[in-house]
Design goal:
This protein is mostly helical and 121 residues long. It folds into two domains: 68 residues, Orthogonal Bundle (Arc Repressor Mutant, subunit A), CATH 1.10.10.10; 41 residues. Strands 1-3-2 form a three-stranded antiparallel β-sheet. Strand 2 and strand 3 form a beta hairpin. Helix 1 runs antiparallel to helix 4. The protein is rod-shaped, with a radius of gyration of 28 Å. 14% of the residues are buried.
């Protein structure tokens, strides 16, 4: 699965609503389109984007087109997000440690300097 296609598909609210509906089970295209205040043609375009991303599968039985959710691409997207999150967590933890060490060195340096009283003239 192409991550770009997956994230593009998830970026639209209409498509996310379609996916939520399909999470409860297979449905006819007309059933999926029913709650939307847009044309069937517009809903079909959204469905094609979901199909291209591999998130939805279409089954044709006579004149009926049934849609169902494909779970594996969601696993792929989740795995990528988890790996990315772990990588950034490690980087940010390392940055935080470096900044804390820098602060500690600066604080120690300030404490070890002898104070210079002002001379009076």
């Amino acid at each position: 699965m192409d991550l770009d296609d997956g994230f593009t598909a998830l970026a639209d609210g209409t498509r996310r609503t379609i996916l939520k509906r399909l999470a409860s089970g297979e449905a006819r295209v007309t059933e999926v389109a029913e709650p939307f205040d847009i044309s069937l043609n517009s809903v079909s375009k959204h469905i094609r984007i979901l199909e291209r991303a591999g998130l939805v599968r279409r089954r044709v039985a006579g004149r009926d087109h049934f849609l169902s959710l494909e779970r594996k691409p969601f696993d792929d997207l989740t795995a990528w997000m988890q790996q990315t999150r772990e990588a950034w967590t490690q980087r940010l933890d390392a940055l935080e440690a470096a900044l804390r060490a820098e602060d500690a060195i600066a604080a120690a340096s300030r404490r070890s300097r002898p104070s210079h009283p002002r001379s009076r003239k």
